[in-house]
Amino acid sequence: MLNDKKIAIIGTGNMGEALVSGLLVSGSSKAKNIICTDVRQYKLDAVKAKYKVRTTGNNLKAVAASDIIIYAVKPQIMASTLAETAARLDVSKLVISIAAGVPLAAMESCVSKDLRLVRVMPNIAAFVKEAATAIAAGSHATKEDVELTMEIFNSIGKCIFLKENYLMDAITGLSGSGPAYIFLIVDALADAGVKMGLSRQESLFLAAQTVLGAAKLLMETGEHPGQLKDKVTSPGGTAIAGLATLESGGLRTTLINAVEAATLRSKELGEMMIKNFSENNAGKKSA
After folding, report:
1. Full-prediction pTM beyond 0.85?
2. For residues 207 and 186, is the Cβ–Cβ distance under 8 A?
């Protein structure tokens, strides 16, 4: 279904390149059907040499030539990029945004026309094709649009579809920001290993591999984390002693509060984006 679609990636930074790699490695798309844009010519030259895709510095040209447009630009330039390409956007094209914190309402206020919009929130693990990605559809997006979007982003990890757009803020707080929480936990575990006499290299490897193994065990067994926790703990043993310390230190509550704080901040940023995009559109109309 996706293989014959022409795909434009507007802004081929780290996430854009991760998408190119995922689409080609998975066989979901062909190099000849992907066109990448960026303001940096050296970046386009590198992507073209590595992946054999088409490239251009002209966003409008890329949009006009494509069936699916993925906006992978930074949130602060999303409004200007949409305005720049709006003339060639219509309901014949699937428009996907991965700009963090930019709600669908903000995009709609900017283009002032009906579009098949889909908002996507991947995370940094896309670089190793293990992204946790959430997808939310606009009012004009079809079931096929959602399926195409999921096929694209399953090439860099695993996806879920959200029926409720407002939950994208919670996704940002949990899986979007989540890798940062895990990096902090791994760093702390590695510090603990060093304190107990292990080398930094040994500690970091063991901490990271332990997190990876625990996550894989959860995903593959489908068991509740509490059940798996109980399998590790024995009466009067080492694990229960460590868990009691974590509970007394408030780790569970701290993580819950971290996700809540990140979610609320995402909502604040989203409201600012809607206001800024609306003002941008108002200014464009009065000019």
Report:
1. yes
2. yes
